[in-house]
Amino acid sequence: MARIANVSSSTVSKIVSGKDEAISDKTREKVMESLNRYHYRAYSSNTTHTKHWLVGVILCSSISSDTTLVGIIKTTQAAGSGVVAFNGFDDEQQEPTNITSVRSQNVDGIIWEPVSENSLKINTAFNNTDIYLSVPQFQAKEQRCRPARLPNISEVTASTKP
What we know:
Elements: H1 2-5, H2 9-16, H3 25-37, E1 54-59, H4 62-78, E2 82-87, H5 95-104, E3 109-112, E4 132-134, H6 153-158
Parallel strand pairs: 1-2, 1-3, 3-4
């Protein structure tokens, strides 16, 4: 690109990375014109400003997982994000394993449907982390045919990490 614009490679690098305060408008315009003409895309991840979220989902049982998970996946994929999902199968002993697993995936946020009210005690696993956590209101097992309202992806992505 530098050869095409007839400038040094460091000039192109400065313009692409936004560190071009000392470069003249004329040179900047010439480089940008060349970049646009050849549909140049920088390889560095530092030049992208689009955040691709990874959302962890921990559901309590298969009763609630079908429609809830499908809705979460559709919404997150439409927003250009991804999902990793775990199912607790109504087993309180499985839940800590699921939490550890979802945290190991470097997720940006977690939607967690606790298996029981006792499960809420392990909420401390998320203390001192930069993970956005959404815990819908607990529902007893017999009420799970209608899952609690989960946040939509815009609520999750609008939240910034502390």
